[in-house]
Design a protein that fits this description.
alpha+beta
Length: about 400
């Protein structure tokens, strides 16, 4: 069993790092604190083949593996944490579902500009009454001639204010089997964006309203019965979330390490104090363990969809480690770490959000337990039987 990257992956990593160092490093801090989407970065990445890494060449991708995409997102994040979001948007989650299940017409209209860095896709999943309990979504698609009328509301949609198209989870019928997805242009009649709000990370989101939006049949990605396929695609998004959490934790760790080898207090370098040595040892152990779990989930998926259990384990642990390590790194840097002159505080805030987004740690542990005991543990209370 070899725990190293292949020679091809090492060459790819070197090329990505060279690109990131040359094109992204200079503006990393300003980019992290800007609320606008970095379209310039998206176009540059498109030119480097960093969007659509796992997608088929005939669809505009490069035919790589999920592990290649993980290497890309980690390497970019190590230089410019904010730019890793562009790798995420161009390889994981909604765009992957579109590439896997979309029709030729859908790919021509939407996937092509996405891979060129000229468009941005968001997944419309969470609703006011359907967060972790995603199967309780109420956004409905009702038949209207040769299409559908979509009515409902989505919240906490990543890239919502900037997206050009939304992969919206909708209900075609009752139950889990009635859930599917459609593509909705954000400029379509009946689509309305609410007031912009900001997360703790400063990333913005908007409430998205669908008011009798007409969706033709050809824009249905997965109809009734498509929910399990969508969740399989969502596991890929979780891999991207996991990789960014770990990468930002490692970024903060490296910043703190450099600081500890230069900063003096009481006439000694910080790295000479045993208390900090043990803190750094703990950080390194956590990072290495998390890396192995992430790579297992990504490698075992090859170029397909990853195991739900392995993904849940990797995300739950990497989310916690990314936040804990970034938080410890901030403590090492002291006031400088807490200042926006450093990107360490940014890493802490971003990692904290990923412990919720894409499946909270608590929900993931429920899923892991189901795999352990090979049975389902429904969260809903049992139905009360009616007496005669």
């Amino acid at each position: 069993m070899d725990f190293k990257l292949t020679p091809e992956q090492q060459d790819f990593q070197t090329a990505v790092r060279r690109f990131a160092e040359g094109e992204l490093k200079a503006g990393a801090r300003d980019r992290a604190h800007a609320q606008s989407y970095p379209w310039d970065v998206a176009r540059k990445m498109a030119g480097q083949g960093l969007l659509g890494i796992t997608m088929k060449p005939e669809d505009g991708g490069i035919g790589g593996t999920l592990m290649d995409a993980v290497v890309a997102i980690e390497t970019v994040a190590s230089v410019c944490p904010r730019s890793a979001d562009v790798v995420q948007a161009g390889n994981f989650g909604a765009i992957r579902v579109l590439a896997e299940y979309g029709s030729a017409e859908q790919k021509e209209r939407f996937l092509k500009p996405l891979l060129a860095g000229e468009a941005l896709i968001a997944v419309g999943m969470t609703e006011p009454d359907a967060g972790s309990a995603v199967t309780e979504l109420k956004t409905a698609a009702t038949r209207d001639g040769k299409g559908w009328r979509v009515n409902g509301t989505k919240i906490f949609t990543t890239h919502g204010p900037h997206a050009t198209v939304i992969l919206a989870y909708v209900r075609f019928g009752p139950g889990t089997g009635g859930i599917g997805s459609v593509l909705i242009d954000t400029k379509a009649e009946g689509v309305r964006l609410g007031k912009r709000s900001a997360f703790m990370s400063d990333e913005e989101w908007v409430e998205i309203f669908f008011d009798n939006v007409y969706v033709p049949d050809e824009m249905v990605v997965l109809g009734e019965g498509g929910f399990k396929k969508q969740i399989a695609g969502f596991n890929v998004e979780r891999i991207g979330n996991t990789a960014r959490s770990l990468a930002l934790g490692r970024y903060a760790y490296e910043e703190a390490r450099e600081w500890a080898m230069q900063r003096k207090q009481f006439g000694r370098l910080l790295c000479e104090f045993q208390g900090l040595q043990w803190k750094f040892a703990d950080m390194r152990i956590k990072l290495d363990a998390a890396q192995l779990l992430l790579y297992r989930a990504a490698t075992n998926a090859d170029s397909g969809f990853p195991s739900a259990t392995e993904t849940a384990i990797a995300k739950a642990y990497c989310n916690q480690v990314g936040f804990d390590v970034a938080n410890d790194a901030l403590q090492v840097l002291g006031g400088m770490g807490y200042s926006r002159e450093s990107l360490v505080e940014y890493c802490v805030r971003r990692c904290r959000g990923w412990m919720i987004a894409g499946g909270s740690i608590e929900i993931l542990k429920n899923r892991i337990a189901e795999g352990i005991f090979d049975r389902s543990f429904p969260q809903r209370p049992p139905r009360q039987s009616s007496s005669a």
